[in-house]
Amino acid sequence: MSEQRSKPTGLYIAGEWITDTDESIVSKNPSNSDEVVAEVAKGDRSDAQDAVDAAVHAQDEWASLTTHERGSYLHETASIIEDRKEELSQLVVQEMGKTIGAASGELQRTIDLLNYYAEVARDAGGNAPPSASENTLTYTQREPWGTAGVITPWNYPIAIPTWKMAPALIAGNTVVFKPASQTPTIAAELVSAFEEAGLPEGVINFVPGSGSDVGDEITTNDDIDIVTFTGSYQVGDHVHTAASDEGKRVQCEMGGKNPIIVDDSADIDLAVELTINGGFTGLSGQACTATSRAIILESVYDEYIDRLIERVESLTVGDPLDESSDMGPKSSAGGLEGDLDYIEIGKEDGATLRTGGNRLEGDEYEDGYYVEPTVFTDVEPDMRIAQEEIFGPVLAVLEVADYDEAIEVANSVQYGLSASICTNRLDHAKQFVRDIETGIVKVNQTSTGVEMQMPFGGRKQSSTETFKEQGRQALDFYTHEKAVYVTHTE
Ligand code: NAP
Ligand code: MG
User: Fold this and answer.
1) In Å, how far from its chain's centre is CA 18?
2) What is the side-by-side strand order in the sheet with 374-377?
């Protein structure tokens, strides 16, 4: 029975699980910090080197399979995960605290991504434009790079590794995967599902461990050909420089400070719901695409704010396994402290704290990292709470005179991941799509939530802007393209 299965808790190198390391990572439940979810073997630099060797060793044979054959491993992995969907959704909740509804959505996305890339694999070739010469065949052919280093964050602890590894594998690369130290158990479950699907040994190698040790080895090891990273700008910028210095192809997707603009034609009820769903519910604001700024035209400001505050105050914060909770805890003590620090900064900088602002107390919250959903008004564009990624349920509301000022404020940050406008004016929607400096643009939708067949990636400090993730475009990063000319002489 799936309930009785013991959790995989080791490193996975060359097809073997390794559990006898000197140190371990203790994964704890953020809604009850006394509860140990699992104790996981912790790898170090030399384990990462072993993992790279295993990946290099396995690569030729893996690349020699047809894309159809490689795709069949992904379909099989998807079906194993589907059988465990409920159990694994609960594990995501226990390990990082998003609500069960959000976790279950993440598991479904993981299954869909695996099936999607298995199918994309069937059609992942190049193209064949006709040659200028009658006796020549010209076409392009995609080839894998070799070994891919995969470094991921904790907020989508199974979907993000999947949207990196699935296209990497389909393209014929082998992988060394380092999960976030906060979520090693769910990451190990993903690896274990690939193992059960019969993936040949050495094709995925898994090394939980610290960023400065295992992460740095993956970033700089000579035998890693390409590095894909998702996480904060601070770490990603370093990874980008370090991997580029070693001559590697690198792709980093990083933080965000995503706005929603509400104009004078907007359906205000919809605008409030988009703000609530983008900024608060499910992940407590811990999405890279989370709505963290609301930029509101003055003509609709009072109406919007009154309804927003009412809705925020009606949110249920509590046990994320309970389906009636809108928000669970923050994922860590550090994340909670970060929010509380920014709340102080907001007050000191002169913004008005309209609701929330405190750690939640009382029985239900005692051992968890719970914070109230928080809204600041009278926020000026240059305040730190309007500029910096907080990564929590803390919304900065900015009032503007007109549409032009709204765009100027929206673009006045270093980040450029996602942005949303709530409007019923086609001219505003069109201008917004053109003027906004982000990689993802939403009209009458939340800033969060993407479809996997669409390319994903930011601009400015949200991304290295080298390659997109997801969609067919993901394969561009994981392959290089040869231009082939074949002339026959007869
Ligand atoms: P993080 O602290 O930057 O960590 C991301 C990953 O990098 C983790 O696996 C981490 O390992 C590793 N790492 C740390 N130092 C490293 C180093 N020196 N060399 C190589 N790797 C290193 O980010 P996080 O706290 O996990 O996640 C939150 C951030 O991710 C937010 O900024 C959020 O916006 C961003 N994010 C972006 C996207 C996107 O697609 N744009 C999606 C989701 C999240 P340890 O865990 O062991 O430290
Ligand atoms: Mg971190």
Assistant:
1) 27
2) 352-355, 374-377, 394-400, 291-297, 258-262, 418-422, 440-443
Residue type at 197 in one-letter notation:
A
Q: Tell me the per-residue pLDDT of 228-240, one tens digit each, with 9 for 90 and over.
A: 999 999 999 999 9
CATH number of 11-254+463-484: 3.40.605.10
Q: Is 243 in the pocket of ligand 1 (CB under 6 A)?
A: no
Whether 231 lines ligand 1, by a CB cut-off of 6 Å, is yes
pTM: 0.98
Select from 152, 155, 289 the residue to mutate for testing ligand 1; criterion: most ligand atoms less than 8 Å from CB: 155
Give the ranges where 41-156 is alpha helix by DSSP (H): 45-64, 67-83, 85-96, 100-120
Nearest partner of 280 among 367, 158, 371, 363, judged by Cα? 371
Task: Give dist(CA 74, CA 272) in Å, integer.
Answer: 39
Average pLDDT over residues 206-224: 98
Whose tokens are 């069109």? That residue is 430
Q: Which ligand is nearest to the CA of 286?
A: 1
Tokens of 101: 């509804």
The pLDDT tens digits for 141-162 are 999 999 999 999 999 999 999 9
**Vertex 108: Cα angle to 89 and 147 (nearest 5):** 95
Distance CA(390)–CA(384), nearest Å, equals 9
Q: By C-alpha distance, which of 191, 254, 294 is closest to 459?
A: 254
Could you tell me if the CB of 153 is within 6 A of ligand 1? yes
Distance CA 40, CA 27 (A): 7
Provide the residue ranges of all domains of the chain, joining segments of one domain with +: 11-254+463-484, 258-443
Q: Backbone phi, then psi, for 136, in 5-degree steps?
A: -120, 140
Contact 394, 292 (CB under 8 A): yes
Question: Of 257, 295, 291, whose CA–CA distance to 461 is shortest?
Answer: 257
Residue 181 phi, psi dihedral angles, 5° rounding: -65, -20
Distances (CA, A) of 83 to 2, 9, 77, 166: 9, 20, 10, 19
Q: Where does 258-443 sit in CATH, by number?
A: 3.40.309.10
221/219 Cα distance (integer angstroms): 6
> Is 288 considered catalytic here?
yes
Q: Indicate the helix (H) or strand (E) that contains 219.
A: helix 216-220
